[in-house]
Amino acid sequence: MRRFVLAVLCAAALPLAAIAQEQGPQITVTGEGRAAAVPDMATVTLGVTAQDADAGAAMAETKRVAGAILDRLEGMGIEARDRQTSDLGLQPVWSNYRDDRAQEITGYEASNRLTVRVRDLAQLGDVLGAVTEDGANRLSGLSFGLQDPDPVEEEARRDAVADAMQRARVLAEAAGVTLGPVLSISESGGGYAPEPMMMMEARDKSVPVAAGETVLAARVTMVFSLGEGDQ
């Protein structure tokens, strides 16, 4: 019985060995690429907070300020699709802890957070200055990006493939073998990486902002076949 089982296992392993033999030796390398472009869009996350002994009054104040900010943004040409309420909050404000007295609620803090896309970077400093003037008292995020990232992403991918091919050539040469054709290629990773480059001009009631560069990264894994070295 054991001999029969062993014979079956060996027979099952033969096709796998034949496939490995048919494919021959291979090399797997990973290449990385980057491409930079001047950003043409910014995303700002700003907020309004207000405290009051009455929860309704706190919410009403944040609603009033947020409404004024949205009206100002509309007047500055920021389209409705680029103005979004991203979070609303209400939480109690507690008194300081004292040994002889338990904590108690002394009021409420309401918050309203907005996410704004600015597609004209020359306007960004004025937008930040305007919303601050209208009552925005929280700025939790500012990021730069590209409205059409596809051409830059393609450039980063080409750079990653060229990097992988160069690595494969060096390794094959060092090992004394010849580099064969590409057997497979896959992409992973990538993303944005800000790089400071320039400072936007500041004007009255405008906030100076460093626009920098937007860098897109790409990573590819390539498998090459290998041939024998020169005889």
UniProtKB/TrEMBL annotation:
Q: Which GO terms describe its biological process?
A: DNA damage response
Q: Which InterPro entries does the entry mention?
A: 26kDa_periplasmic_antigen (IPR052022), SIMPL/DUF541 (IPR007497)
Record keywords, A-Z: Signal
Record's superkingdom?
A: Bacteria
Where would one find the signal peptide in this protein? 1-20
Alphabetical list of PANTHER family matching this protein: PERIPLASMIC IMMUNOGENIC PROTEIN, SLR1258 PROTEIN
Instruction: Please identify the protein, giving its name as recorded.
Output: 26 kDa periplasmic immunogenic protein
**Organism in which the protein naturally occurs:** Salipiger thiooxidans
